[in-house]
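Memo to structure team: turn this sequence into structure tokens by end of day. - J.P.
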Amino acid sequence: MNTENDKSANLETGLVQVYTSPSKRINYASFGLALRASGQGFCTLITRFAPHDLMDGEKQACRSLAPNLVIDDSALDGFDIKGELAVEKARDSFRKARDAAISGAFDLVVLEGVLALVSTGLIPLKEILGLIGEKAAHVELVITGPEAPNEIIQKVDLVTEMAVRTLFHGENQAPIEVVTGKGKGKTTYCLGKALLMSSMGVPSFILQVVKSPKPYGEVMAIKNLPGLEIETMGKGFVDKKHPDADPSHWEAAREAWERGKEIILSSRYELVVLDEINIAVNYGFIHPDEVASLLSKKPDGVHLMLSGRYAKTDVMKHAKVVMEMKEIKHPFKNGVGARRGIEF
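Reply from structure team:
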């Protein structure tokens, strides 16, 4: 990536996003946002205050997306939430991230897991509220953790809560995950997980079933990622009231479905993401029985993720994990449209 050549301007509008999850499962949407932003030439700082299962992929992800992704995990050195050393390191990491957001040194600043520190008082609530008001206008600020105080929710632009339901199917098999719900962050969750897993050496493939072939940020960024491939086969926007009005959407979805089946059953990839497959099923382009049948035949070694609103019960019952992104607050309702580097 070359930020000097690729980035023609700062983000036009920098908002504040909050992602929460009452469960202990991390929401990888912030890593997906960083991937997409990188593809549009924007730079992201992720300051991480909590460990997660895919940490081993972070260094390679930073190398692949350099100089557009920086991850600061120094707050976790000698991690002991009750120890004075850990407290000072966490506060120092927060100060550095705050300075980066206020100065505009990065286009996106992510405080990954900081809400847990706010709840314990390690990072004072007033400092988060102050940062929300003081950040540079073009900077996108992303705040994550288990729960957000009402004072934060009232001041930010977007809030998504990730509700996790864990089922148990085939303990020795790679899992099936369904990522659904009305809230923002479904595709970005999958992108973030694919970024980190592929950076750990897991051959990964993303199939975009509904999106049309355009230079989306994730498509541009993935060109630089070893071990991760993406293919976009849809026709784009579908009229929700008349999804069958344009037969080209049905034809494209059917082609994508056949391609997806071939990819999954071949076992060439250990992670496969069927992005917005749930939408295609909802519109009748693909029957839920077809999806359920494929899931029952999925090779044991293939980790499969199915994203999009409107996930059907017959599909979800095959999943090991169902994540519902709940919309608590959304900027589109205030007239903010899709932005390059954030939504595409």
